[in-house]
Amino acid sequence: MGGQVTTTSPTGKVVIADRSPHFRETLRRVLLQNTDAEVIGEAGSFREALRLVREKGARVVLLAVDLAMNQPATRLRRIAESLPELRVIVLLDDDTPGYRQAIRERWGYTCVAKENAESELLPALSAPPRQRLSRA
Questions:
Q1: Which of 32, 85, 88, 103 sits most deeply, having the most CB atoms within 10 A of its CB?
Q2: What long-range pairs does 101-106 form, CB within 8 A, spacing at least 24?
């Protein structure tokens, strides 16, 4: 990988949600070395991620798409809409332009491929938040 890039935008409180403790640790390391992020919690389940977001006042949730697959996406959407400062970044196992576009169009969330997380995460955090869409 190339040189490390530090994001200049305030990241704030982050929840990392993925089934793999090793992957969560990798993301934690990337965030702590390159941003002003405070990782306030890690979750191995969708339910735990939502609890941490609500209780700890996260500004960013890094959410593995497979954690949300069997959950009502409207639950996450309701929480995100009730916390206007919350940014949701979806972590993709299977990355295709069509899949990214579908998530972006349907929910307005940014996507990061897990296999490219170290290079894609920082630009995703630095980019201005997307306008939330009004459809459910």
A1: 88
A2: 103/65, 104/130, 105/133, 106/133, 106/135
